[in-house]
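In response to a reviewer's request, we include the raw inputs and outputs for one of the modeled complexes. The two entities were modeled together in a single run.
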Amino acid sequence: MSQASNKVFANGWMAAVYLFLYLPIITLVVFSFNDSKLVTVWSHASTRWYSALMQDSDLLSAVFLSLKIAFLSALMSVFFGTFTAFALNRYTRFRGRTLLSSMSTTPLVMPDVIVGLSLLLMLVSLQHWLGYPQRGLFTILLGHALLGTAYAAVVVTSRLKEMDGKLDEAAMDLGAKPLQVFTLVTFPLLIPALVSAFLLTFTLSFDDVVLSSFLSGPGYNTMPMVIFSRARLGLNPTINAVATVTITVVTIAVIASSFYTSHIERKRKREMAFAYSDANN
Amino acid sequence: MATAPKPQTDSKATTKEVLLRVEGVTKIYDGTVKAVDDVSLTVNKGEIFGLLGGSGCGKSTLLRMMAGFEKPTKGKIFLDNQDITDLPSYQRPINMMFQSYALFPHLSVWENVAFGLKRDNMPKDEIAKRVEAMLTLAQLNKYAQRKPHQLSGGQQQRVALARSLAKRPKLLLLDEPLGALDKKLRETTQLELVNIIEEVGVTCVLVTHDQEEAMTMASRIAVMSEGYFLQVGEPDVIYETPNSRQVADFIGNVNMFEGEVVVDEPDHIIVKCDECTHYVGHGFTGNKGMAVGVALRPEKIMLSKERPTGEYNWAEGVVTEIVYFGDHTTYHLKTTNGHVIKAQEINNTRDLSCGLTWGDHAYMHWNDLAMIVLTH
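The model returned the following structure tokens for the whole complex.
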């Protein structure tokens, strides 16, 4: 009896958690196909707001700006994050390494508001003294790359740590110069970590609103900024439509990537089993 | 005064051509930790030299300095009379077979073996020829296109060997070459490995913590502890003529008797111990009244139920433990004053030969030349 009731409780608990996670998203998707102008009242199905989205040049340009910033800042983050990870893990020990290594991750725990504010203060005074940079795309990019670098460094560091340091030595032992060791051995093995660091920092930048608000200038509104400002004026179902498009794209990407990794893993297991049965013959 | 039989260490070595010479090498980590302490050694051409010791004895650090991954704090390393102390590892004609093999997981077996050759900008057709030859040598032709994770442990080990031999190094370093294999596979692989090394004729330095591995593979062994060499010599010399209690204890099993020299003659000495009196059939460098250790290997002790007739070289005890290994059995006998002596009997018949069981009273005896007298 108690086992059965345990099971009911466990299943109910799980259902509640998943409802809590997905009900808002499902509601949003459903209401993006609602004909009514009121977000909370269902009238009948239509794709009216999707057509409206196509006409909404402000929102569309914000989406493209966000994509552009996310792409570029993710590239920058991975680039600088990789360097940081290397400096902190592969160099011989140097004085203050522990301090530097914990300092490199402060942006992760520092509230975005403070990071944004301090960056803004720095940029304003820079502009005052040098007349450069104008706030806009470049400054948002800078802020996102700053945050992203810290995240990318963490991802690459964990991969570097689990990677066999002996591989570098083996390459060197076989005559590879330090640069060749990187291009021929370390880099190819780091690619999976670089891809996941890219995806992580891309999403981080894509949904950031705090840093962007501090660092953007006139005419540079990212998608989250537009959604946020419109939400304050009363919700418009066009927002639901753009959100649904985003969710669809993200879902497809996530499913595809998890299918791909599980495929690779299964193939590897099959091959290993084959190799061992082969070795015994 | 008689002298003990001296282990012949470097008498043969001088007649051969020296390939590697390590001179007074010291490695200090973080300014205080002495990993290797003023070590000197020579390795001759064609020799397999074993560095044997427990973990943290400095054997791996010494090997890494030969490979060029670490720089000695002090001392020099010469290869073929050329000073290589400051040469980076990628310029040394030395290759290493790593403990966990360190095969490149993203490259096929073929590409792994070719890796070193490509770094030398060897012509493509020559690389192909060399790789094929190496794969044939290691019996890996069937697996050329596989990735390392598609191979079994023994196959991976052979790839690692083929890769480290491909560049025809002057010196091959082996870091615990069989450490990752299970016991059964070890024995066959060990012989394969030695055969391949002998076929190629490459000089080797082998690092291991496994004395059996060192004994069977190496032509000379250096026993290391706390950064320096305790003894260097052929495997049988190390086993039968250890120069200290530490070496005797580290290599194989040993019963140690502590006693005092009561008779010192040119052809024999007599050592009085708590458990028994030893008549040692050779002289020793020392004098009467000296405190010495007498080391006696368990397999050199014979067991019987009857009391031996002689005056020396026997002891009595009660069987407290019988450890059956299949091919041999080790008996633990407790003497009246509480010492435990181990005796090892070969099971050369199918019934347990001496018919002893727990609690039996038994006599142990051994001959005049079975023990080693140790002064330090």
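As requested, we also summarize the result in words. Residues 59-238 of chain A form a domain with the MetI-like fold fold (CATH 1.10.3720.10). The radius of gyration of chain A is 24 Å.
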